[in-house]
TrEMBL record:
One example GO MF annotation: metal ion binding
Protein name stated in the entry: 2,4-dichlorophenoxyacetate dioxygenase
Domain (TauD/TfdA-like) ranges: 5-277
Keyword set includes DNA-binding: no
Keyword annotations of the record: Dioxygenase, Iron, Metal-binding, Oxidoreductase
InterPro entries recorded: TauD-like_sf (IPR042098), TauD/TfdA-like (IPR003819), TfdA_dioxygenase (IPR051178)
Similarity comment: family membership: Belongs to the TfdA dioxygenase family.
Length: 287
C-alpha cells in the first residue's frame, strides 16, 4: 500500500497513512516521509504501538539520536536515547504535586523547540503515545515559524536577521523555579549560541529559531533581548500559525524542530495517567 499524506487545511501539519512503522522502513518510504515533514512541518501516524527499538530505528533515519544525561527527570528511562514525558514516578504511580520531576516538566507548557540548548540541536522529534487519559486527553500545540517569518515586514526581517541568541535549559526551567541540575547535566548541557533566523533546509524558507530555551540575545542588553524574544514568540504563536494535535492511542507524532515551536497543554495529572515516549535526531552540523 502506498503512503498517503493528508494535509491539514492550512498546510501546516499532515496525517501520514498507509504504512506500519513496526516494520523496518525502506529508502523509498523514508524519502516520502521526509518530504512530507519538510513540506508540512508536523506529521502524525495513527495506531503505531511501537516498542523502543522500533521508535529508535525510525528516528535514526533522520540523523544520530540525541543521548540524554541520566538525571532525576529521566530516571525511568533505561535507553539513553529516550525521554520520559509522563506524570508517572519511578515506582509506576502518578507523581504527587510536589514531585521534583513534575515541576521540571511544567516548563513543557511554554512554547519551545526541543534541544535548542545543544550544539548541534535537534532536527526531528518523534513522540509516541503509550497511555493517554481516559477523558479529554490534552492536545499538543505547534506553531509554524516559517509562516511567522514570512508575515513579518521586510524592514523587521532586516533588523532581526543578523542577531544571535543564547539558548539554555537553565533559562527554560528557571521559568518554573527548577534549579536542581546535577553536575553531569551541567557538564553535558552548557548554553549554546544559535542564529535567531535560520534557513530551513527542507523547504529553503527562512524561519525564527526561538522558544523557552532562548535566554538572551548576544551583544544586547539582557532585559531588552528577553523582551524582544518574548515579543517574537507571541507573534509566532498566533492562531493563524498553529496546528493543534488531538491525541489518539498509539499516535506517533513527528515534527521538524528547526522550523516549529510546540507546547504541552494542561490536564488533571493528579487523576489520569499519561505516558509518552520521546526521542529525537540531531542536526549533523552545528547551527
Amino acid at each position: 500500500m502506498a503512503i498517503t499524506v493528508k494535509p491539514m487545511p492550512s498546510g501546516f501539519g499532515a496525517e501520514v497513512s498507509g504504512i506500519d512503522l513496526q516494520e523496518p522502513l525502506n529508502q523509498e518510504s523514508y524519502t516520502e516521509i521526509e518530504a512530507a515533514l519538510a513540506r508540512h512541518g508536523v506529521i502524525f501516524f495513527r495506531n503505531q504501538p511501537l516498542d523502543e527499538a522500533a521508535q529508535e530505528a525510525f528516528i535514526r533515519w533522520f540523523g544520530p539520536p540525541n543521548a540524554l544525561a541520566r538525571q532525576l527527570n529521566n530516571s525511568r528511562m533505561k535507553n539513553p536515547y529516550f525521554y520520559d514525558v509522563s506524570n508517572i514516578d519511578e515506582n509506576g504511580k502518578i507523581m504527587m504535586q510536589e514531585h521534583e520531576r513534575r515541576l521540571y516538566l511544567q516548563a513543557n507548557l511554554f512554547w519551545h523547540t526541543d534541544m535548542s540548548m545543544r550544539q548541534p540541536p535537534a532536527r526531528v522529534t518523534a513522540l509516541n503515545a503509550i497511555v493517554l487519559p481516559e477523558e479529554n486527553p490534552p492536545n499538543t500545540e505547534f506553531a509554524d515559524t516559517r509562516a511567522a517569518w514570512d508575515a513579518l515586514p521586510k524592514s523587521r526581517q532586516a533588523e532581526l536577521e543578523p542577531l544571535r541568541v543564547v539558548h539554555s535549559v537553565y533559562a527554560s526551567r528557571a521559568k518554573v523555579g527548577y534549579t536542581n541540575f546535577n553536575a553531569e547535566t551541567r557538564n553535558l548541557l552548557p548554553p549554546s549560541e544559535h542564529p535567531l533566523v535560520r534557513l530551513h533546509a527542507g523547504s529553503g524558507r527562512k524561519c525564527l529559531y526561538i522558544g523557552a530555551h532562548a535566554s538572551h540575545i548576544v551583544d544586547m542588553d539582557e532585559s531588552e533581548g528577553r523582551a524582544l524574544l518574548e515579543e517574537l514568540t507571541e507573534f509566532a504563536t498566533q492562531p493563524q500559525f498553529r496546528y493543534e494535535h488531538k491525541w489518539q492511542p498509539h499516535d506517533l507524532l513527528v515534527w521538524d524542530d528547526s522550523c516549529t515551536l510546540h507546547r504541552a497543554t494542561p490536564f488533571d495529572d493528579q487523576k489520569y495517567r499519561r505516558e509518552l515516549r520521546w526521542c529525537s535526531a540531531r542536526e549533523l552540523e552545528p547551527v
